[in-house]
Specification:
The protein is of the alpha/beta class and 397 residues long. The protein has a domain of 101 residues: 3-Layer(aba) Sandwich (Rossmann fold). Helix content is 33%, strand content 14%. The protein contains eleven helices and 14 strands. The chain has a seven-stranded mixed sheet with strand order 3-4-14-11-10-8-9. Strands 6-5-7 form a three-stranded parallel sheet, with helices on both faces. A two-stranded antiparallel sheet has the order 1-2. Helix 1 runs parallel beside helix 10, helix 6 crosses helix 7 and helix 6 packs across helix 10. The longest helix has 23 residues. The chain is globular and about 50 Å long. The termini are far apart. InterPro entries: Aminoacid_DH-like_N_sf, NAD(P)-bd_dom_sf, THF_DH/CycHdrlase, THF_DH/CycHdrlase_cat_dom, THF_DH/CycHdrlase_CS, THF_DH/CycHdrlase_NAD-bd_dom. GO terms for molecular function: methenyltetrahydrofolate cyclohydrolase activity; methylenetetrahydrofolate dehydrogenase (NADP+) activity. It comes from Rhodamnia argentea. This is Bifunctional protein FolD 4, chloroplastic-like isoform X2.
Length: 397
Amino acid sequence: MALSECSTSTASRFFPMSLRRDAAVLAPRLSLPHRSCASKVPSFRTLAVRASTPLLVASEACAKVIHGKYVSKLIRDEISAEVSGMKEAIGVAPGLAVIIVGDRKDFATYVPNKKKACESVGINSFEVHLPADSKEEEVLKFITGFNDDPLVHGILVQLPLPSHMNEQSILNAVSIEKDVDAFHPLNIGRLAMRGREPLFVPCTPKGCIELLHRYGIGIKGKRAVVIGRGNIVGMPAALLLQREDATISIVHSRTQNPEEITREADIIIAAVGQPNMVRGSWIKPGAVIIDVGINPVEDSKSSRGYKLVGDVCYEEACKVASATTPVPGGVGPMTIAMLLCNTLTSAKRTHNFQCVGCFRLYFTIRKTSSEIVQEDSLSTRTAFTCRCPYSLNCLFS
C-alpha cells in the first residue's frame, strides 16, 4: 500500500453530556496569543489552578502544541480522586467490561492500554477474549451477562468485529445505560436532537471538544470543518460542535473543492484515515487543528520500519495554524480518558452518587445563603456553579 509523506503531492481526496463551560476550574487553561513565526522565544500565559506546568508549548515554527497526553493525565487524576471518594462514601467502584473477538495486531496495543488506564484510576476491569471464529451468539451471551451484572457499569465491544458478525446487532445488544462507547442509536439520536441529552457521548469526539475547552479555545460562532463523516468520530464530532454553536461544514469523499472549504475553517477536526491528506495550503492562517488520524507510513530510519502520522501534514500545519495536536500524543490519550470518564459517569448515575466535594460545597453555600431552600429541591442544584476539583461530570453542574 502506498503511503504518502508530507513532501509528496496532495493525497487522494477524500455531558447528561453537555460539555463543561467551567473547565478552567479543573485544569490549567491557556490563551493562544498571536506571535510571529520569526519569534525565537515561546510565548504563552498560564492560568494555572491546580498545576503550573504549561500545556501549550511553542514549536520551532509557529503553531502551539495541544498536548492531549498531558491533559489526559490531568483528567485521569481527577477521575482517580473521584473514584476514591466514591469507594469511601458508598463502597462501590466503577467497572468496565471489554469484549474482544480475534487477534488483530492493533488490539495488542489498544486493549492493554485500556486495562492499564482502568487500574490506574481504580476502575475494575473485566475482559473477555474470544477467538476470531466465534459465533455471534457467543458474543451476545457475554453482552447479556454484563448487562445484568451490577458490578459492571460500562461495556465496550472492541471494533472491528470479524466480517461474519453483524456489528449493528451486537452493538445494539449493549444496554444503553452501559453504552460507554456511545454507539447505541438512542445515544446518537439524542445527541443529534436539540433539547435532548444522550447518556453518553462517543469518546474520541468528546476528547476533541474537551481539548478545545481545556485550552480555552472558543467554539461559539466559529466556522468549523470536520473532515470525515464516520459514525465513530466525524458525525458525532460535527454534532458536538453544533451544540457548541459553531457553524459546521463536513468534508467527505464526495465533497467538491474540499481544500477551499477547509481553508475557511477556524477549527478543523480531521478524522478521515488518510495520512497527511490535509496540507498547509488547506489551512487558514491561525486556525486550530485537532488531528484524529493515526496512520503508519514507511520510515527506514525507524526500528519498526514505519512511523505514525496524522491526517494533517504536521510540518506544514505548524507553519500556518495557531495550534495543533501532535500524532501520536494528541487525541489518542484523550479517547481512553473519556472512556474512563463515561464509565465513572455510568457508575455515579446507577448509584445516584454526587461527588463528596460537591456535597461539601453545597452545604457550605446553603448555610451561608440568605435564601431558604429545600434540601431535596432541584432548584438548589442550579443555585451555584460547581467548582469541585474532583468531578468531571458533577450532577450539580
